[in-house]
Amino acid sequence: xxxxxxxxxxxxxxxxxxxxxxxxxxxxxxxxxxxxxxxxxxxxxxxxxxxxxxxxxxxxxxxxxxxxxxxxxxxxxxxxxxxxxxxxxxxxxxxxxxxxxxxxxxxxxxxxxxxxxxxxxxxxxxxxxxxxxxxxxxxxxxxxxxxxxxxxxxxxxxxxxxxxxxxxxxxxxxxxxxxxxxxxxxxxxxxxxxxxxxxxxxxxxxxxxxxxxxxxxxxxxxxxxxxxxxxxxxxxxxxxxxxxxxxxxxxxxxxxxxxxxxxxxxxxxxxxxxxxxxxxxxxxxxxxxxxxxxxxxxxxxxxxxxxxxxxxxxxxxxxxxxxxxxxxxxxxxxxxxxxxxxxxxxxxxxxxxxxxxxxxxxxxxxxxxxxxxxxxxxxxxxxx
Length: 384
Description:
16 helices; three-stranded antiparallel beta sheet; disordered C terminus; 384 residues; globular
Protein backbone atom coordinates (compact mmCIF):
# COMPACT_ATOMS: atom_id res chain seq x y z
CA UNK A 1 0.00 0.00 0.00
CA UNK A 2 1.36 3.41 -0.95
CA UNK A 3 1.96 5.73 1.96
CA UNK A 4 1.19 8.94 0.09
CA UNK A 5 -1.36 10.63 -2.11
CA UNK A 6 -1.46 13.59 -4.48
CA UNK A 7 -4.13 16.14 -3.63
CA UNK A 8 -4.71 19.88 -3.58
CA UNK A 9 -2.38 21.68 -1.18
CA UNK A 10 -3.84 25.19 -1.40
CA UNK A 11 -4.95 27.67 -4.03
CA UNK A 12 -1.42 29.06 -4.43
CA UNK A 13 0.54 25.80 -4.50
CA UNK A 14 -1.94 23.67 -6.40
CA UNK A 15 -1.30 19.96 -5.96
CA UNK A 16 1.05 18.48 -3.40
CA UNK A 17 2.25 15.11 -2.10
CA UNK A 18 0.81 14.13 1.29
CA UNK A 19 1.67 11.30 3.65
CA UNK A 20 -1.03 8.75 4.43
CA UNK A 21 1.14 6.92 6.97
CA UNK A 22 3.93 7.75 9.40
CA UNK A 23 7.50 7.97 8.12
CA UNK A 24 10.54 8.01 10.38
CA UNK A 25 13.73 9.86 9.53
CA UNK A 26 15.58 7.94 6.83
CA UNK A 27 12.53 6.04 5.58
CA UNK A 28 12.12 5.72 1.82
CA UNK A 29 8.85 7.34 0.76
CA UNK A 30 8.95 6.39 -2.90
CA UNK A 31 11.17 5.40 -5.79
CA UNK A 32 10.39 6.35 -9.35
CA UNK A 33 11.79 6.21 -12.87
CA UNK A 34 11.27 9.32 -15.00
CA UNK A 35 8.93 9.63 -17.94
CA UNK A 36 12.04 10.69 -19.85
CA UNK A 37 15.51 11.83 -18.85
CA UNK A 38 18.45 13.32 -20.70
CA UNK A 39 22.09 14.16 -20.09
CA UNK A 40 22.94 17.85 -20.39
CA UNK A 41 24.41 18.84 -23.74
CA UNK A 42 27.65 20.39 -22.49
CA UNK A 43 28.09 17.61 -19.94
CA UNK A 44 28.06 15.08 -22.77
CA UNK A 45 30.36 17.27 -24.85
CA UNK A 46 32.90 17.23 -22.00
CA UNK A 47 33.14 13.43 -22.37
CA UNK A 48 31.07 12.40 -19.38
CA UNK A 49 30.12 9.02 -20.83
CA UNK A 50 26.70 7.85 -19.70
CA UNK A 51 23.95 5.48 -20.74
CA UNK A 52 21.74 7.43 -23.12
CA UNK A 53 18.63 6.04 -21.43
CA UNK A 54 19.24 5.86 -17.66
CA UNK A 55 22.32 8.11 -17.33
CA UNK A 56 24.38 5.44 -15.57
CA UNK A 57 28.08 6.33 -16.02
CA UNK A 58 29.93 4.17 -18.53
CA UNK A 59 33.36 4.42 -16.95
CA UNK A 60 34.78 2.80 -13.82
CA UNK A 61 35.63 4.91 -10.74
CA UNK A 62 39.31 4.52 -11.58
CA UNK A 63 38.79 5.64 -15.19
CA UNK A 64 36.66 8.50 -13.91
CA UNK A 65 39.20 9.89 -11.45
CA UNK A 66 42.08 9.43 -13.89
CA UNK A 67 40.24 11.45 -16.53
CA UNK A 68 39.08 14.19 -14.17
CA UNK A 69 42.51 14.58 -12.56
CA UNK A 70 44.55 13.99 -15.74
CA UNK A 71 46.63 11.51 -13.73
CA UNK A 72 46.60 8.19 -15.61
CA UNK A 73 48.62 6.36 -12.95
CA UNK A 74 46.13 6.70 -10.07
CA UNK A 75 45.17 3.35 -8.57
CA UNK A 76 42.13 3.15 -6.30
CA UNK A 77 42.29 0.81 -3.30
CA UNK A 78 39.38 -1.62 -3.10
CA UNK A 79 38.61 -0.73 -6.72
CA UNK A 80 36.44 -3.83 -7.04
CA UNK A 81 34.00 -2.63 -4.38
CA UNK A 82 32.09 -0.57 -6.90
CA UNK A 83 32.54 -1.47 -10.54
CA UNK A 84 30.70 -0.54 -13.68
CA UNK A 85 29.78 -3.64 -15.67
CA UNK A 86 31.69 -2.69 -18.80
CA UNK A 87 30.84 -5.99 -20.47
CA UNK A 88 27.12 -5.19 -20.46
CA UNK A 89 27.56 -1.91 -22.38
CA UNK A 90 25.87 -2.06 -25.76
CA UNK A 91 24.89 0.34 -28.51
CA UNK A 92 22.23 1.05 -31.10
CA UNK A 93 23.29 -0.95 -34.14
CA UNK A 94 22.14 1.87 -36.43
CA UNK A 95 23.52 5.05 -34.83
CA UNK A 96 25.97 3.76 -32.21
CA UNK A 97 24.31 5.45 -29.22
CA UNK A 98 25.66 3.84 -26.04
CA UNK A 99 23.62 2.12 -23.33
CA UNK A 100 24.64 0.44 -20.10
CA UNK A 101 22.60 -2.67 -20.89
CA UNK A 102 20.43 -4.33 -23.49
CA UNK A 103 17.41 -3.52 -21.32
CA UNK A 104 18.11 0.21 -21.52
CA UNK A 105 18.66 0.00 -25.27
CA UNK A 106 15.29 -1.67 -25.73
CA UNK A 107 13.52 0.75 -23.37
CA UNK A 108 14.91 3.75 -25.24
CA UNK A 109 13.95 2.31 -28.62
CA UNK A 110 10.40 1.58 -27.50
CA UNK A 111 9.93 4.95 -25.78
CA UNK A 112 11.55 7.51 -28.13
CA UNK A 113 14.73 6.39 -29.90
CA UNK A 114 13.04 4.94 -32.98
CA UNK A 115 12.06 8.50 -33.95
CA UNK A 116 15.35 10.10 -32.88
CA UNK A 117 17.91 7.58 -34.16
CA UNK A 118 20.40 9.50 -36.32
CA UNK A 119 24.00 9.69 -37.45
CA UNK A 120 25.64 12.03 -34.92
CA UNK A 121 28.63 12.51 -37.25
CA UNK A 122 26.36 14.20 -39.80
CA UNK A 123 26.82 17.88 -38.96
CA UNK A 124 23.76 18.80 -41.04
CA UNK A 125 21.34 16.43 -39.34
CA UNK A 126 18.49 18.40 -37.68
CA UNK A 127 19.23 16.95 -34.22
CA UNK A 128 22.94 17.81 -34.46
CA UNK A 129 22.11 21.33 -35.65
CA UNK A 130 19.55 21.77 -32.85
CA UNK A 131 21.98 20.57 -30.18
CA UNK A 132 24.77 22.85 -31.35
CA UNK A 133 22.39 25.80 -31.49
CA UNK A 134 21.18 25.04 -27.97
CA UNK A 135 24.73 24.83 -26.63
CA UNK A 136 25.47 28.30 -27.96
CA UNK A 137 22.37 29.63 -26.19
CA UNK A 138 22.74 27.79 -22.89
CA UNK A 139 26.25 27.60 -21.48
CA UNK A 140 27.16 25.83 -18.21
CA UNK A 141 26.08 25.68 -15.49
CA UNK A 142 23.27 23.83 -17.23
CA UNK A 143 19.76 23.55 -15.83
CA UNK A 144 17.96 21.70 -18.61
CA UNK A 145 18.40 20.46 -22.16
CA UNK A 146 16.49 20.96 -25.38
CA UNK A 147 16.78 17.20 -25.87
CA UNK A 148 14.55 16.58 -22.86
CA UNK A 149 11.85 18.50 -24.72
CA UNK A 150 12.61 16.62 -27.94
CA UNK A 151 12.34 13.28 -26.15
CA UNK A 152 8.93 14.27 -24.79
CA UNK A 153 7.75 14.94 -28.34
CA UNK A 154 9.27 11.69 -29.60
CA UNK A 155 7.62 9.82 -26.72
CA UNK A 156 4.24 11.19 -27.84
CA UNK A 157 4.97 10.51 -31.50
CA UNK A 158 6.00 6.89 -30.85
CA UNK A 159 3.20 6.11 -28.43
CA UNK A 160 0.58 3.56 -29.44
CA UNK A 161 -1.92 5.95 -27.83
CA UNK A 162 -0.72 9.51 -28.55
CA UNK A 163 -3.74 11.09 -26.85
CA UNK A 164 -2.94 9.31 -23.60
CA UNK A 165 0.72 10.30 -23.93
CA UNK A 166 -0.26 13.95 -24.42
CA UNK A 167 -2.53 13.77 -21.37
CA UNK A 168 0.32 12.34 -19.31
CA UNK A 169 2.64 15.15 -20.37
CA UNK A 170 -0.01 17.77 -19.64
CA UNK A 171 -0.19 16.60 -16.03
CA UNK A 172 3.07 18.52 -15.59
CA UNK A 173 1.59 21.73 -17.06
CA UNK A 174 -0.18 23.95 -14.56
CA UNK A 175 1.02 27.50 -15.21
CA UNK A 176 -0.55 30.36 -17.11
CA UNK A 177 0.68 31.36 -20.55
CA UNK A 178 2.27 34.55 -19.14
CA UNK A 179 4.04 32.60 -16.40
CA UNK A 180 5.38 30.16 -18.99
CA UNK A 181 6.73 33.02 -21.08
CA UNK A 182 8.39 34.64 -18.07
CA UNK A 183 10.06 31.38 -17.06
CA UNK A 184 11.39 30.74 -20.55
CA UNK A 185 12.59 34.34 -20.73
CA UNK A 186 14.57 33.65 -17.56
CA UNK A 187 15.95 30.44 -19.06
CA UNK A 188 17.02 31.89 -22.42
CA UNK A 189 17.83 35.49 -21.48
CA UNK A 190 17.35 38.73 -23.38
CA UNK A 191 17.25 37.09 -26.82
CA UNK A 192 14.19 35.18 -25.62
CA UNK A 193 11.78 35.80 -28.52
CA UNK A 194 14.28 35.20 -31.31
CA UNK A 195 15.75 32.12 -29.61
CA UNK A 196 12.33 30.62 -28.95
CA UNK A 197 11.37 30.93 -32.60
CA UNK A 198 14.71 29.46 -33.69
CA UNK A 199 14.44 26.49 -31.33
CA UNK A 200 10.80 25.85 -32.22
CA UNK A 201 11.52 25.85 -35.94
CA UNK A 202 14.53 23.55 -35.53
CA UNK A 203 12.59 21.20 -33.25
CA UNK A 204 9.81 20.91 -35.83
CA UNK A 205 12.43 19.54 -38.25
CA UNK A 206 13.26 16.80 -35.73
CA UNK A 207 9.78 15.71 -34.61
CA UNK A 208 6.56 16.62 -36.36
CA UNK A 209 3.08 15.29 -37.05
CA UNK A 210 -0.49 15.65 -35.87
CA UNK A 211 0.19 14.05 -32.48
CA UNK A 212 2.67 16.76 -31.45
CA UNK A 213 1.42 19.72 -33.47
CA UNK A 214 -0.11 21.54 -30.49
CA UNK A 215 3.34 21.67 -28.87
CA UNK A 216 4.95 23.14 -31.98
CA UNK A 217 2.83 26.29 -31.99
CA UNK A 218 4.45 29.33 -30.34
CA UNK A 219 2.24 28.98 -27.25
CA UNK A 220 2.55 25.20 -27.04
CA UNK A 221 6.32 25.26 -27.45
CA UNK A 222 6.62 27.92 -24.75
CA UNK A 223 4.55 25.73 -22.42
CA UNK A 224 6.80 22.74 -23.10
CA UNK A 225 9.95 24.81 -22.53
CA UNK A 226 8.56 26.04 -19.22
CA UNK A 227 7.64 22.47 -18.31
CA UNK A 228 11.17 21.12 -18.74
CA UNK A 229 12.62 24.21 -17.09
CA UNK A 230 10.58 23.97 -13.90
CA UNK A 231 9.56 20.32 -13.57
CA UNK A 232 12.84 18.83 -14.70
CA UNK A 233 14.56 17.29 -11.67
CA UNK A 234 18.33 17.53 -11.77
CA UNK A 235 20.09 14.16 -11.93
CA UNK A 236 23.70 13.67 -10.94
CA UNK A 237 25.67 10.43 -11.05
CA UNK A 238 29.36 9.89 -10.27
CA UNK A 239 31.44 6.68 -10.29
CA UNK A 240 33.99 8.34 -8.01
CA UNK A 241 31.38 9.42 -5.45
CA UNK A 242 29.78 5.97 -5.44
CA UNK A 243 33.19 4.34 -4.93
CA UNK A 244 33.88 6.73 -2.04
CA UNK A 245 30.52 5.93 -0.41
CA UNK A 246 31.14 2.21 -0.80
CA UNK A 247 34.77 2.15 0.34
CA UNK A 248 33.98 4.12 3.49
CA UNK A 249 31.74 1.22 4.56
CA UNK A 250 34.63 -1.27 4.41
CA UNK A 251 35.77 -2.59 7.79
CA UNK A 252 39.35 -1.48 8.48
CA UNK A 253 41.62 -0.36 11.29
CA UNK A 254 41.70 3.25 12.49
CA UNK A 255 45.09 3.76 10.84
CA UNK A 256 43.82 2.39 7.53
CA UNK A 257 40.74 4.58 7.81
CA UNK A 258 42.89 7.66 8.41
CA UNK A 259 45.10 6.84 5.42
CA UNK A 260 42.02 6.29 3.26
CA UNK A 261 40.54 9.64 4.30
CA UNK A 262 43.78 11.39 3.37
CA UNK A 263 43.89 9.56 0.04
CA UNK A 264 40.30 10.56 -0.78
CA UNK A 265 40.98 14.18 0.16
CA UNK A 266 44.00 14.14 -2.15
CA UNK A 267 41.92 12.66 -4.98
CA UNK A 268 39.37 15.45 -4.76
CA UNK A 269 42.17 18.01 -4.59
CA UNK A 270 43.66 16.64 -7.83
CA UNK A 271 40.26 16.63 -9.49
CA UNK A 272 39.38 20.15 -8.37
CA UNK A 273 42.72 21.51 -9.60
CA UNK A 274 42.14 20.03 -13.05
CA UNK A 275 38.36 19.98 -13.52
CA UNK A 276 36.98 22.33 -10.87
CA UNK A 277 33.71 21.25 -9.31
CA UNK A 278 32.31 19.90 -12.59
CA UNK A 279 32.55 16.29 -11.38
CA UNK A 280 29.31 14.50 -12.15
CA UNK A 281 27.44 13.13 -15.09
CA UNK A 282 24.55 15.60 -15.04
CA UNK A 283 21.15 15.83 -16.64
CA UNK A 284 17.48 16.12 -15.79
CA UNK A 285 14.32 14.04 -15.90
CA UNK A 286 10.55 14.37 -15.56
CA UNK A 287 9.17 12.48 -12.56
CA UNK A 288 5.40 12.34 -12.25
CA UNK A 289 5.19 11.68 -8.49
CA UNK A 290 8.33 13.45 -7.32
CA UNK A 291 7.44 16.59 -9.30
CA UNK A 292 4.29 16.96 -7.20
CA UNK A 293 6.45 17.75 -4.15
CA UNK A 294 6.25 21.43 -3.29
CA UNK A 295 9.11 23.51 -1.94
CA UNK A 296 9.76 24.23 1.72
CA UNK A 297 12.76 26.06 3.18
CA UNK A 298 12.72 23.51 6.01
CA UNK A 299 12.08 20.38 3.92
CA UNK A 300 11.01 17.10 5.47
CA UNK A 301 12.22 15.02 2.51
CA UNK A 302 14.99 14.96 -0.09
CA UNK A 303 15.49 13.48 -3.54
CA UNK A 304 18.55 11.28 -4.06
CA UNK A 305 19.87 8.96 -6.77
CA UNK A 306 21.34 6.02 -4.83
CA UNK A 307 21.52 3.58 -7.75
CA UNK A 308 23.86 5.60 -9.93
CA UNK A 309 21.22 6.10 -12.62
CA UNK A 310 18.09 8.17 -13.20
CA UNK A 311 15.91 6.34 -10.66
CA UNK A 312 15.00 8.84 -7.93
CA UNK A 313 14.47 7.99 -4.28
CA UNK A 314 12.47 10.29 -2.03
CA UNK A 315 13.62 9.90 1.57
CA UNK A 316 12.33 11.41 4.83
CA UNK A 317 14.67 13.90 6.50
CA UNK A 318 12.60 14.01 9.67
CA UNK A 319 9.51 12.25 11.07
CA UNK A 320 6.46 12.76 8.84
CA UNK A 321 2.96 12.12 10.17
CA UNK A 322 -0.17 11.09 8.25
CA UNK A 323 -1.68 14.20 6.67
CA UNK A 324 1.63 16.09 6.54
CA UNK A 325 2.62 17.52 3.19
CA UNK A 326 5.86 15.98 1.91
CA UNK A 327 8.10 18.84 0.80
CA UNK A 328 11.58 19.09 -0.67
CA UNK A 329 13.84 22.08 -1.21
CA UNK A 330 14.09 23.53 -4.71
CA UNK A 331 17.22 25.35 -3.54
CA UNK A 332 20.68 23.87 -3.17
CA UNK A 333 22.11 23.38 0.31
CA UNK A 334 24.19 26.55 0.19
CA UNK A 335 21.29 28.80 -0.85
CA UNK A 336 19.01 27.12 1.67
CA UNK A 337 21.26 28.34 4.49
CA UNK A 338 21.07 31.96 3.37
CA UNK A 339 18.72 34.70 4.55
CA UNK A 340 14.99 34.68 3.89
CA UNK A 341 15.36 37.53 1.41
CA UNK A 342 18.08 35.69 -0.52
CA UNK A 343 15.97 32.53 -0.67
CA UNK A 344 12.88 34.46 -1.74
CA UNK A 345 14.85 36.24 -4.46
CA UNK A 346 16.12 32.93 -5.86
CA UNK A 347 12.67 31.33 -5.79
CA UNK A 348 10.99 34.35 -7.39
CA UNK A 349 13.55 34.50 -10.19
CA UNK A 350 13.61 30.80 -11.02
CA UNK A 351 10.18 29.51 -9.98
CA UNK A 352 7.92 32.60 -9.94
CA UNK A 353 6.51 32.18 -6.45
CA UNK A 354 6.88 33.65 -2.99
CA UNK A 355 7.49 31.08 -0.29
CA UNK A 356 5.37 31.29 2.86
CA UNK A 357 6.56 28.12 4.56
CA UNK A 358 6.83 28.04 8.35
CA UNK A 359 10.49 29.07 8.24
CA UNK A 360 9.88 32.02 5.91
CA UNK A 361 6.90 33.14 7.98
CA UNK A 362 8.94 32.99 11.19
CA UNK A 363 11.72 35.03 9.54
CA UNK A 364 9.37 37.58 7.92
CA UNK A 365 10.46 40.35 10.28
CA UNK A 366 14.07 40.12 9.09
CA UNK A 367 15.46 43.00 6.97
CA UNK A 368 14.93 42.68 3.23
CA UNK A 369 18.56 42.35 2.24
CA UNK A 370 20.54 39.58 0.60
CA UNK A 371 23.08 37.52 2.47
CA UNK A 372 25.89 39.49 0.82
CA UNK A 373 24.34 42.78 1.95
CA UNK A 374 24.04 41.43 5.50
CA UNK A 375 27.82 41.12 5.70
CA UNK A 376 29.50 43.98 7.51
CA UNK A 377 32.40 45.91 6.03
CA UNK A 378 34.65 44.17 8.55
CA UNK A 379 33.47 40.77 7.30
CA UNK A 380 34.13 41.78 3.69
CA UNK A 381 37.57 43.13 4.59
CA UNK A 382 38.34 39.92 6.44
CA UNK A 383 37.51 37.92 3.33
CA UNK A 384 39.85 39.98 1.11
